[in-house]
Amino acid sequence: MKLNQILDFCKANIVVEKKTCKKCGKEHSVTKLLKSDFICPECGYYFRMNALQRIALIADDDFQEIDGELKSKNLIDFPGYDEKLKKALETNDKNEAVTCGTCTIGGNKAAIFVMDSTFMMGSMGTVVGEKITRLFEFATKENLPVVGFTTSGGARMQEGIFSLMQMAKVSGAVKRHSDAGLLYVTVLTDPTLGGVTASFAMGGDITIAEPNALIGFAGARVVEQTTGQALPKGFQRSEFQLDHGFVDLIEERGKLKDTLASILKLHEVRANGSI
């Protein structure tokens, strides 16, 4: 882990100086958590990471952002949406709930998108969908694999049907990328829910999850209320999804970069199309 790189990426993005672990209740400085990959030193709990922290952890030194200037607008004059967007922009140094670009991971070039739960809970609006679609189209043109990190509460309700349309739009771009014989690896982080799960989060050739991440469509309480049945222990957590075939691998955060580098190297598509 390149600590100086992480600090350079994140020092402007620290909103609070300390965070409290939801599992053991211990309080840690953000600086200390930067050194531990945002894993609680006391109990191993995984704190959520923003997009820049995630990129600094995974990418080599050469991340180049694509379409970072795109911003959402209140397309349907939804009450209160302008204020929510303004607040999200004031508390983030990114313009949207996803950051896209290119980088190398352990020396292997890839296109990468990283969703960010600190921006309106990573909700998928038109700009999120457009940025990810453009990234897949770019990767298809440039013969690059895509690595995607998902975290989202689902579709952005303030954009109505325009938000839901992104599910089909991104999925179409994923399919064209796949038809070109290119690799797509998804990394599901806590939480990955709703329309994101129902579309591109589950469209990868290889699906990895972080430990204990919440992964599903509807939340557990909604499922219980709808079915009238008690849910099994650990329902919708990574380990449950692995046991039921929805993910291929659960990987520890500290080992994730090496795992991705190995996968990218193994599936490298050479310029002549051979593997």
CATH architecture group name of the largest domain: Alpha-Beta Complex
Structural class: alpha/beta
Residue runs with pLDDT of under 50 for 5 or more positions: none
Coarse shape: globular
The CATH topology assignment of the largest domain is: 2-enoyl-CoA Hydratase, Chain A, domain 1
SSE blueprint:
Elements (H helix, E strand, L loop, with lengths): L2 H8 L7 E3 L6 E3 H6 L15 H8 L5 E3 L14 H10 L7 E8 L2 E8 L10 H17 L3 E7 L7 H20 L4 E9 L1 H4 L8 E4 L10 H8 L10 H6 L5 E2 L5 H11 L9
Parallel strand pairs: 5-6, 6-7, 7-8, 8-9
Antiparallel strand pairs: 1-2, 3-4, 4-5
Helix pairs in contact: 1-3, 5-6
What do these coordinates show?
The protein has 275 residues and is an alpha/beta fold. It is 36% helix and 17% strand. It contains 10 helices and 9 strands. The chain has helices at 3-10, 30-35, 51-58, 81-90, 126-142, 160-179, 194-197, 220-227, 238-243, 256-266; strands at residues 18-20, 27-29, 64-66, 98-105, 108-115, 146-152, 184-192, 206-209, 249-250. Helix 1 (3-10) packs antiparallel against helix 3 (51-58) and helix 5 (126-142) runs parallel beside helix 6. The longest helix is centred in the middle third of the chain and has 20 residues, at 160-179. The mean pLDDT is 92. The chain has 2 domains: 1-47, no CATH class; 49-266, 2-enoyl-CoA Hydratase, Chain A, domain 1, CATH 3.90.226.
